[in-house]
From TrEMBL:
This is Uncharacterized protein YndB with AHSA1/START domain. Coiled coil: none annotated. It comes from Amycolatopsis thermophila. InterPro entries: ASHA1/2-like_C, START-like_dom_sf. Residues 12-150 form the Activator of Hsp90 ATPase homologue 1/2-like C-terminal domain.
Length: 153
């Protein structure tokens, strides 16, 4: 199991970014790598609340961790500090032992000149996910987060 840390900048205040971290429709739009589509099945944004989401590969030939073309995972909000930090415990729905285990994703927001610095740290990344792939997917998602929030003002 490995870890990664990726940061990005959003031209919007922390409350606007935090809302996008805790809204199911927003999550489905931005927390998705470029070659995938997101679908949120359930979402309860409160400490201890859980959610379930699928990332579906656009390419019908791609195999997912949970099934054909699909990476489905269940998360739990371990901490929600409004406008500051979100801590999530995430587990892939997969029969493959290399994809199992709890991964912690911590998103931290801080003021930056003209907007918000966003830092996403993943700890306990399953062995089936290459750290470089995790970083690439996180960078894609951060770019989509910035575009999503900035378009809404």
């Amino acid at each position: 199991m490995t870890s990664t840390r990726v940061s990005g900048f959003v031209r919007a205040p922390r409350p606007a970014v935090y809302r996008a971290l805790t809204d199911a429709r927003a999550i489905a739009a931005w927390r998705v790598p470029d070659d995938m589509t997101g679908r949120v099945h359930e979402f309860e944004a409160r400490e201890g609340g859980r959610y379930r989401m699928s990332l579906i590969y656009d390419d019908p030939g791609r195999a997912g961790k949970s099934g054909a073309r699909t990476d489905t995972f269940t998360g739990r909000f371990a901490a929600l500090e409004p406008d500051r930090r979100v801590v999530e415990l995430i587990e892939f729905d997969s029969p493959d032992p290399a994809s199992q285990g709890v991964m912690t994703m911590t998103t931290t927001l801080s003021d930056a000149d003209g907007g918000t610095e966003v830092v996403i740290e993943h700890e306990g990344i399953p062995d089936s996910v290459a750290p470089a792939d995790n970083e690439t997917g996180t960078r894609m998602a951060l770019a989509k987060l910035a575009a999503f929030v900035e378009q809404r003002g």
